[in-house]
Each structure stands twice: as structure tokens, then as C-alpha cells.
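In this supplementary section we document a worked example of the pipeline. Step one takes a protein sequence of length 402 as its only input; no multiple sequence alignment statistics are reported here. Step two produces a three-dimensional model, which step three serialises into C-alpha cells for compact storage. The input and output of this example are shown verbatim.
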Amino acid sequence: MLRLSTYGRPAIPFRSTVVGRVRRTSVTTGTRDEVFVTDGVPTPKVCRGYTAIATTGTISPSQAARLDMPIIHRVPSVDHLSQGDVVALDPSGHIRTLYRRGSRHNTLLATERCNSFCVMCSQPPRDVDETGIVEEHLRVIELMDPATEELGISGGEPTLLKDDLLRLVERCRDLLPRTALHILSNGRLFYYGSFASRIAEIRHPNLMFGVPLYSDIDYCHDYVVQCRGAFDDTIVGLLNLGQHQVPVEIRVVVHRDTYARLPDLARFVYRNLTFASHVTFMGLEPMGFAAANLRTLWIDPWDYRDPLEKAVLFLARRGMNVSIYNNQLCTMPESLWPYGRKSISDWKNEYLPVCEQCDERERCCGFFSSSIRRVTSTHIRPICRSTSNPAVLGSETAEPFL
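The serialised model returned by step three reads:
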């Protein structure tokens, strides 16, 4: 699993968080947009003009005073930081990676607040002080490489930012016009048609809202999100987004409370939400509430392969764009392999040793790191193309539960 943060010590105290673009190679004069990241002890000559310094070396208070900028020193390692990444240096000594230039899996955590309480939420809502978080997001967007292929915005629930979410979308439109923007939202606040209209009026060239729908029955969906009336809010919100031609993706997290009605949900989507640009069926990520509720939520993907196959093929044969996220190919019928995607973000993506023997490893999404620690299918095995059927060459899985 890739590292996204590290800690050092402030060489001398500084008051506020500094956000900047990583510079790994010294130049005659840096810019106020850049954080100089280095090993060893930098000299004033090579640090001129930067907004801050992060270093594995030890800087004395007198040296820090001469450098005259925020410095976090005695960092164990800076090897995970590359030229063009964007980092935040906190007065506590925490160095957070906010954007990785070389990755296709960059996401802004818009807020940790949420108006739902989903039983399998991998990022449980928290009521924390988020003063300045929107300004930090806006600054990150300014510092990102305009060639970035895609950017996610998630939460919590991003629409709770209201006007500030519009500001983020506008900033992305203006500064990252070639970057696909994917926003994860429960869609409930789009019940208010004026909000959907204002999003549409921004005219972002490549925007998608990913909205979860867990059942075709209202009380089943409401149970999963732990909020009465959420199904009605979400359906009206989806219809409002569709009316204003804002692209939407329907996202279905599959677990013990949702798997049985997947074919019924597929029929509901086709009859009522045909305007959806994409429908995804997603394996469970055992983090947050999903980890806490794992004994009641977990079902081996092998055991729901039949309803999944019926749902996916029903939509695909009717011309809808369908994908399967987070499930390994060896747990699916071969008819579903074309719909499997390498969906897990690179910083939390791993494979089991047995996967090294698999002919389809490069096509398979692998596992969440949290899955390997907690639970995996008991049917993980390498697929061998040298025979007519996938070969079972052994099985190597985690224990079902810790």
C-alpha cells in the first residue's frame, strides 16, 4: 500500500498549513507555489524563493532562521513524494499528500460530514472542524497538472458544501478543462431542482455524478443508508439531474442486504433511469462501518455470481453501459469478465501471492488492502488459459473474519 502521509518536526514553529507543489530538483530560484523536498541539509542558496521545505535532514534553529520559511525536518523518508505532487505541511509536522501527479486515482475529500449513515460506509461521517478546507481544495486544483486525466471529489457528502461545491466545479472547469471530474454523492440534495440546475449551468465539459442506489424497494434502500425517505430523495434527485442533462452513474454496492434483488434493481434502473451514463456493481470495501458490520454484511462474491450475472447482462443487452468494480475475475462467470474493471485506487490495491500464477492478473482489479487483512473470497485461484477451463492451482485467502 502506498504511503500518502508522513511526519517530521517543525524546525521552528509556524502558524498555518502550507500547500505547495513538490520540487525535488533544486533550481537557482524556486517559486512561492513550490515546496522543496530533499534529503540532507539544504543551504540557503538552493532554497531561495520556495514557500516551504521538507527534508530528512536535521536543521538547527539558527539555520531555520536564515532560511526564513516553514520547514519540516527529520522526516523518516520522502521517497513517496515526486516532482509535481501537491502536499500540505501542517504546523504539527504532518505532511499530507493531496495530489499525486503520476496517479490516475486522485480524489479531494470535500467534507467528512454526511446526511446519510450507510451501514457499509468506508469513510464514516465525522463532525470535525473543517475551517479552510474549501480554500485548501481550491488551492490544490490551482497547483495540479492541467494534463491530469481525472479527478474525484468525495466525502462525506460533497453537496453539503452547497455553494462551495459549485465553486470547486467552476475552478475545475476553468483550470482543468481536460480533466474528467467524478463526484460521489448520495444525490439527495438534488431533490431541489434548483441545485441540479445550478450544477448544469456551470457547463463543465466532462462531469459525472456517481449516485448510489441499493434497491428497487424504498424501505430496503432506506435501511442501507439508515435514513427514512432517502430513496425518494435520491430518485427525485437523479431525475432532476437527468432533466438538466447532468451525467450520472448509478452505483450499487453489493453485500448481504442488497445482492438478492440485483436483477429487480436492474429492471428498475432500465425502466426509470435509462438516461444514466453508467451503472456499476461494486464489491464491498471492508473499511469503516463495513469493517464494523462485516459479519452481517459479508457475502462471498462467488455466492452472488448468479444474480450479478442476470443484472449485468440484462442492462448490457439493452444497450446500457455497465461495469463491475472491486470483484476478482475468478469469482465471476466468464460471461462477466468483459465488464470487470481495474477499479481499486493504486494506493490501496494489492494482490495475493497466488495471483502471480494467473494469466488474467493484468486485467483483474485485485484486492483492497483492507480485504487482504480482513476477508477474501474462498474461491480465489489463478486462471490458466492453457486449459479450456480456469484451473484451480491452489487457494490462498485470508481467514474469513478476524
